[in-house]
Amino acid sequence: MTIARIALVGDRSPAVQAHARVPALLAALRERDGLTLDAYWIPTDEADGLEGFDGIWMLPGSPYRSEAGAVNAARTAREHGIPFLGTCGGFQHTLLEYARDVLGLRVAHAENDPDAGEFLLVPLACSLAGHEEAVRLEPGSLIERIVGADRTVEKYSCSFGLDPAYVPVLQEGGLRFTGRGEEGAVRVLELPGHPFFLATLFQPELAGDGSRPHPAITAFASAAVARASAAALR
Is beta strand 55-58 parallel, antiparallel or unpaired with respect to 3-9? Predict the structure, then answer.
């Protein structure tokens, strides 16, 4: 049996519902799906040296202690081909990393740096904290294949999202936006050419009662185990 080592990047807190769900989700992955993950919680202010992990899961809970640490986690996964799942704050900081490090944009997260001059992540016109929303999935995308449908209803706990003015430049720069809310706002991103790189503004950790992992979590775990298996054969 292959065991994958994964980094759970986030400032662990019993007050964050997504964090509280993780132990049950890991158990369900092992018992229901035969996917065993050796998971390590990594605070954002210690999120360096992650290259040896088989997967990186950046969990909700922003504002993080360290924006730089969260950005570094996303960069490490992107540059080293490590399976990556970013949710809520993980989605936001994945956008920040790509905009800065790949496209060279001087942009900020309004929650982290409210006095900055240019914001990539801005307050949502209507907060999604504690709400559910339908998400339309792009046909043929990774997320559509994972979910097995072109529409899903997901739970949120966030108040910040991508400034739509930056959508064209990010798309031209290589990101793929494959899930959108009913009004067209970006909810899912993917990175073409990467083994597994998925980030969602919604929180798949909150799906159901926590006894059955969301398909996105199962797919991430499968990718991490596949990476660990391939490494064992080398």
Answer: parallel
Residue in the block written with tokens 């964050």: 16
CA–CA dist 87, 213 (Å, integer): 14
Cα 205 off chain centre by: 11
Tokens 């072109």 belong to 150
**Exposure of 217 in the CB half-sphere (CA atoms within 13 A):** 31
How far apart CA 178 and CA 183 sit, in angstroms, is 14
65-100 burial code (b ≥16 CB/10 A, e <16) = bbbebbbbbbbbbbeeebbbbbbbbbbbbbbbbbbb
pLDDT in tens, 9-61: 999 999 999 999 999 999 999 999 999 999 999 999 999 999 999 999 999 99
Condensed to tens digits (0 to 9), the pLDDT of residues 73-121 reads: 999 999 999 999 999 999 999 999 999 999 999 999 999 999 998 999 9
According to DSSP H, which parts of 10-104 are helical? 17-33, 67-80, 89-97
Rg of the chain, C-alpha, whole Å: 16
Interatomic CA distance for residues 72 and 102, integer angstroms: 13
Name 45's Cβ contacts closer than 8 Å, sequence gap at least 6: 11, 65, 66, 69
Which pLDDT score, from 0 to 100, does residue 219 have?
98
Tens-place pLDDT, residues 143-163: 999 999 999 999 998 889 999
Provide, rounded to the nearest whole percent, the portion of the chain with pLDDT above 70: 100
Please return the burial class of 105, using the count of CB atoms within 10 Å of its CB with bins 0-12, 13-18 and 19+: middle
